[in-house]
Amino acid sequence: MLALRKNIPGPGAELVRVDLQEPLALGEIRVDVRAVGICGSDLHAHAWDPSYGFMAPFLPLTLGHEFSGIVAAVAPDVTEVSVGDSIVCWPTVTCGTCAACSAGRPGGCEGRRIIGLHRDGGFADSVRMPAANALPLPAGLPLDVAALTEPLAVSINAVNVAGVAAGDRVVVLGPGPIGMGIALVAHARGADVLLAGFRDDARLALAHDMGIPAVADLAQVTLAEAVQDYFNVAPDVVIEATGRPPSVAEGLAVLRPGGVLAVVGIHAEPLSLDLNQLVRGKKQLRGAHDSTSQGFAEAIERLAADPGLYARMITHRLPLAQAEDGFALARKGAALKVMLFPGGG
Ligand SMILES: [Zn+2]
Ligand SMILES: [Zn+2]
């Protein structure tokens, strides 16, 4: 079968033919992948950006964690899913035994592994994975839209960490797939949302078209001007999804006293920050990463309730055989979500 493999701890990945992997262990299933999205972390892992060195001991492996598919085989002890079921992958595999897992905080698991970053993932015709990480899909949810579950769950978690409530004024920085999902979820929960980007015409226009109340291109106005123009008062919440360190300082500067700034982007460089602004303004700075099982369930519900809306986030569709073209597109600002389809379909 075809698979996009990361073979060496350095830049690049290879699209290669590989044998079907070893037989299923207890608790595992084999899934025929039907749709798999290219995530920012796939781009970082492909380019071998500095914060992805953690993958080195796990190579070689097949990349890809945002996928849906059909169960093709199950180990004898598996009862959660059956052959033929449509599923989406929850990529976080927790150890179940560390202090965090034992205390019911699987998000803090020290032995946490991600399908597609620590073990073989979904940029392949088929993948072997734990049955516990396969979530059944409701009838009528198309598999391409279902492959948006993981990024939408990440967005939902960010909105939860930021404590967004109905009626809040929320600024979202960065109109990539995560920022767009954050804006959509915050808006759906009754917040008033301003989504800002930088030279991001296509994605901002799409966001506005998808119902985000206000968008701003920070190549034309400053963040402070955009906030003043739209809200006329300082926002309650700022959520940063750019990965550009100065965005955090800019967001903190426009936030109201006592407001919350949640950092979601993965930052390649450190930031120097005026903490007096944080302290005297009694502002809260929080980090949001990954997703939770509740977030996953909510993401599936939201996608199933309005698949037509979320399908618009998929701006490019390519066969897995053109994975490198897909990665090149995803690196350019114009693409929102690039979806790859194994089996040439
Ligand atoms: Zn992802
Ligand atoms: Zn654990």
Automatic annotation (TrEMBL):
Domain Enoyl reductase (ER), residue spans: 12-340
Pfam name, any one: Glu_dehyd_C
Keywords from the named record: Metal-binding, Oxidoreductase, Zinc
Cofactor(s) needed by this chain: Zn(2+)
SMART domains for the chain: PKS_ER
Highest taxon of the lineage: Bacteria
InterPro entries with a match to the protein in the record: ADH-like_N (IPR013154), ADH_Zn_CS (IPR002328), ER (IPR020843), Glu_dehyd_C (IPR031640), GroES-like_sf (IPR011032), NAD(P)-bd_dom_sf (IPR036291), Zn_alcohol_dh (IPR050129)
SUPFAM superfamilies the record matches: GroES-like, NAD(P)-binding Rossmann-fold domains
Record-given protein name: Zinc-binding dehydrogenase
